[in-house]
Amino acid sequence: MGICASTSSVEGGKEKQPEVRLEDFEIISTIKKTSHGKIKLVRNKQSDVLLVLKSTQKSLVKRNTLLPIIIQERNILARLQSPFICNLKYAFQDAENFYLVVEYKAGRDLRAALKKQRKLNEESVAFIAAEVASAIAYIHSHHIVHRNLRPENLLLDEDGHVVVTDFRLSSFFNEKNMLYVSVGTLAYMAPEILQKCGYTHTVDWWSLGVIIYELLFGKVGH
User: Fold this and answer.
1) Best CA proximity match to 92, nearest among 58, 64, 47
2) What would the pLDDT profile of 47-105 be if each residue is shown by its tens digit?
3) In the chain, what are the domains?
4) Which of 194, 197, 107, 212 is nearest to 147 (CA)?
5) Cα 209 → chain centroid
């Protein structure tokens, strides 16, 4: 159905991964349930490495026409390789589900940090903003726009470094053709998305600005 059995190199530098099956992973726990599947912490039985497995039920894909979104997310993740994202390790399917397996990063998201502290000091915000900006610049260099940057999708790992997650709403872009699909989280969406007047990758910088304001003042600016 279009999503390949294992990840392979889209751009130079990645070795083709061997085909895998669900049986190759030990389920540790369920991290989150979504409207169309589950996100689980798993262990690769061969390498003993912890990973995150995201499943999407095929029955819901057929019903809600999610297949193009799943394929695009897989293709986007396959193109990226950076310490600032949870890199894709495997993509495969069985009779019931599509699966994406990405790196596991221990830590907490920025939303959890804000709930605990309400707002952060300027030094911490400057550090986080610089790392998110580096991640955005890297993502954009591959002609990808994230479109859903928000505290819930920014993890702080055990060393305090930022990791960008959730590329489900991301898209490829080029400078000549505007995007018009209205997607994202309302509070962090750039005006041009809401106005449906056409946009490109610059909308991610607007989202970062909103996040910086929220980290500094403990609320979303209007």
Assistant:
1) 58
2) 999 999 999 999 888 766 788 889 999 999 999 999 999 999 999 999 999 999 999 99
3) 20-103 (3.30.200.20), 108-217 (1.10.510.10)
4) 194
5) 19
For the entire predicted model, the pTM comes to 0.86
User: Three-class SS of residue 108?
Assistant: strand
**Contact present, 204 and 136 (Cβ < 8 Å):** yes
Residue 50: CB atoms within 10 Å: 15
**What amino acid is encoded at 18 in this protein?**
P
Count CB-CB contacts under 10 A for residue 2. Answer: 10
User: Which residues have CB under 8 Å from 34's CB, separation 6+?
Assistant: none
Q: What is the pLDDT of residues 120-144, one digit of tens each?
A: 999 999 999 999 999 999 999 999 9
CA 24 from chain center: how many Å? 24
